[in-house]
Design brief:
The chain is α+β, with helices and mostly antiparallel strands and about 400 residues long. It contains 7 helices and 19 strands.
């Protein structure tokens, strides 16, 4: 065959191959720009009518409703959800534009996460928006997210229920399938520099008291350290200043659903500006549950006599009064399942701060208790490091207390 014929043959072969590949791609992975269209035309004009957001995922259902008190999860005792997340989801649906056609083949849906939610191993979420009368305003299968490409906007894969066509839609809102991720996670937050004293009382009555003389004191001291006992180091207890910095829930239930009649671990945390937070912790099955109360006491430091740097984190008397009221209003009727490492910190015994040779030899003798070395705990058991977990670091709770909806 002449050279010219070979070139022509090669060119024809390339064209045929390209058409064949295009046909296969079209058959399985259609990914073409479409004339931009709203996923739900007219919804944005009725966005204030959205009164309920239902999310169905494999093994989990979330029902979020708008009430006079704000957005709550009706199938979790009407506990408050993150308002911005709920509003963001509603507005996101109203503004959603479908910009890229994707596959129409059911056997490819799972790669985009837009398979039917009842399917085996489904990762999709069926999201339904309703008005106050229960009328459906929008319904969509939401799949996995896609990061922005070449600096472009990221988004999610979606599919209308009953429609074979899947889409990519630019988006910047979240639709978690895990109900716990929707809940307002933060139970309490207090600047670690405010903490003046931490007292823990074990169920057997053993008491540990840590304190600082002033807001500028570098390290916690131990009150009534037993004779002959030696601490691991000067700063061994400084991590206790974070006991109120971040307390996040794993699960939540009405206090009546948790047996607080048993002897609890008790922790009392006082701040230099007069806030007093008491935490009682009981073990229900394998899970630690807590209840909190806040009150106002005389300040342990005069804010006005402190340096400007200290005044920045100490609150005024009015601010502390309001803070205590807010804590009680938010937590007063609830019991919280805590992260394991947070519960262990709140109920810390003296033994974990002492040098190992004073603890009865390898194994800890009768002292027990967690170590402070992070996950795995070194040679002292479970540590203080935060556990993992999916969807924002809030792992689902274990077996719920009786009466969970």
């Amino acid at each position: 065959m002449k050279a010219k014929s070979l070139v022509i043959f090669a060119g024809v072969t390339a064209v045929v191959t390209a058409f064949a590949l295009a046909a296969v791609a079209k058959r399985y992975w259609i990914s073409e720009s479409a004339a931009t269209e709203r996923a739900f035309p007219g919804l944005i004009d009725r966005i204030n009518d959205v009164a309920e957001i239902d999310v169905k995922a494999k093994g989990a259902t979330t029902v979020i409703k708008r009430t006079d008190a704000g957005w709550v999860m009706s199938n979790k005792y009407d506990y408050p959800v993150q308002a911005e997340m709920a509003k963001g989801a509603a507005i996101g649906f109203g503004e959603m534009e479908l910009t890229e056609r994707k596959t129409t083949h059911p056997d490819r849906y799972s790669r985009l996460g837009v398979e039917d939610v009842d399917g085996e191993n489904a990762k999709s979420r069926l999201v339904t928006l309703k008005d106050a009368k229960g009328t459906t305003l929008a319904e969509l299968i939401v799949g996995r997210p896609r990061e922005g490409r070449l600096g472009g906007q990221g988004g999610i894969y979606v599919r209308h229920v009953g429609d074979a066509q899947s889409w990519f839609a630019p988006a910047n809102f979240e639709i978690p399938g895990n109900p716990m991720v929707w809940l307002e996670p933060r139970i309490i937050h207090a600047n670690a520099k405010r903490i003046a004293t931490v007292t823990t009382v074990q169920p057997n009555g053993d008491t540990l008291v840590l304190y600082k003389d002033a807001p500028t004191t570098a390290h916690f001291a131990f009150k009534d350290l037993p004779p002959g006992k030696k601490l691991k180091g000067e700063a061994v207890a400084d991590d206790m200043s974070t006991v109120l910095t971040t307390i996040d829930l794993v699960d939540v239930a009405p206090q009546a659903n948790v047996d607080f009649s048993q002897k609890p671990w008790h922790t009392d945390v006082k701040t230099f500006d007069g806030l007093d937070v008491k935490v009682d912790i009981v073990q229900q099955g394998e899970h630690p549950w807590a209840k909190l109360t806040a009150s106002v006491e005389a300040p342990l430091a005069d804010r006005n006599s402190q340096t400007p740097d200290v005044q920045k984190f100490l609150k005024t008397a009015d601010e502390v009064t309001q803070e205590a009221a807010d804590i009680n209003n938010r937590t007063g009727k609830w019991a919280y399942e805590l992260q394991g490492y947070q519960a262990e910190k709140l109920r810390s015994p003296l033994s974990i701060f002492l040098e190992a040779e004073q603890m009865g030899g390898p194994g800890g003798g009768d002292i027990g208790g967690p170590g402070m070395g992070g996950p795995g705990g070194g040679d002292m058991g479970a540590g203080f490091g935060p556990p993992g977990g999916d969807e924002g670091g809030l792992p689902p709770g274990g077996p719920p207390p009786s009466g969970k909806k």
